[in-house]
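Bench log. Compound arrived from synthesis this morning; before running ITC I wanted a structural hypothesis for how adenosine-5'-diphosphate sits in the protein. Inputs:
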Amino acid sequence: MLENKNTSKTSISELGEFGLIDHLTKNFKIKQKTTLKGIGDDAAVLAAKSSEEIVVTTDLLVEGVHFDLSYMPLKHLGYKAVVVNLSDVYAMNAEATQITVSIGVSNRFPVEALEELYEGIHTAAKYYNIDVVGGDTTSSRTGLIISITAVGRIAKGKSVYRSTAKESDLLVVTGDLGAAYLGLQILEREKKVFEVNPQSQPDLEAYTYLIERQLKPEARKDVSKLLKELEVTPTSMIDISDGLSSEILHICKQSKVGCNLYEDKIPLDQQVISTCEEFKMDSTTIALSGGEDYELLFTVKMDDFPKIKGNPNFSIIGHITHEKEGVHLVTRANEKIPLIARGWNSLSEDSK
Ligand code: ADP
Ligand code: MG
């Protein structure tokens, strides 16, 4: 299935560290006005305006922990490594402008494999209009390690934190949830089938959206602009990397508020619903605990309801309450269940 196909193999040692960096980064073009010096000096130099704030975020991805190369093509991995970082910048309401890319590679990887990885990084950099301005390259004894740092900019005082949600605010989420997690389940299932029977030709037609959400996620670059056009300022914001319930709990804990989340309002794609039915999984649990959706979760003032209502990009899924009311899921049966970080206190306890 999605094997990494590196037919020609050039050893990294043939190029040497500097040769390798030059080779991998030669296609990167500087597009951002704020990049004064990119790759090639001791450090990158970025322009700063006194009217702006600079947002910085880092993610570290480790083979075998965060990704599995048996079903993650390196090109997709490069793309996704950039996306997960940009998602954090967008979750601050900022515009992403630069990244640095650091890699630890074992000699099991030929140059051609790193070319694929960098092709994915390059594609993401072009799509999201960011410059790759530096990084570091080192050898690793075991697997592949990728660390990306992203830099973004936002007008002074306009960064949106997790800690500023207020009682009676509305809780809003972009896109739909749970698909990336189900995509991972499908890929892992196919990997096991493939291990038993390498000749198997999987039919993944019914899961294309799920697999795409897992292998080629996108960050919500558009949301900050959409909200500006609607003249809505989010009161708090976070990106959904670990699952809806965990992110809601972050906002509530840091803002010292409670929340009611309505099960029937959680946005689900049709493929999520049908796949959950097929595998006898609960779609709400998947959306709450799945993770890797890279959608944005934010709160807005109640007064902004008319501006958000009916917008296809947004779903209003709950509202913020006083801290002492706690954080709850209101089920379709109108039961209130406390939200916990991994899924919710499942109905199985009640049904025993
Ligand atoms: P130093 O010895 O000062 O750390 P390096 O030789 O590691 O410098 O890096 C030289 C230049 O190449 C620097 O601009 C650095 O940011 C950039 N660079 C190094 N590794 C990578 C990489 N994996 N991806 C992108 N740029 C890199
Ligand atoms: Mg270095």
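What the model suggests: The pocket of adenosine-5'-diphosphate (ligand 1) is lined by residues 21, 25, 39-42, 101-103, 132, 134-137 (CB under 6 Å). The radius of gyration is 22 Å.
ITC booked for Thursday regardless.
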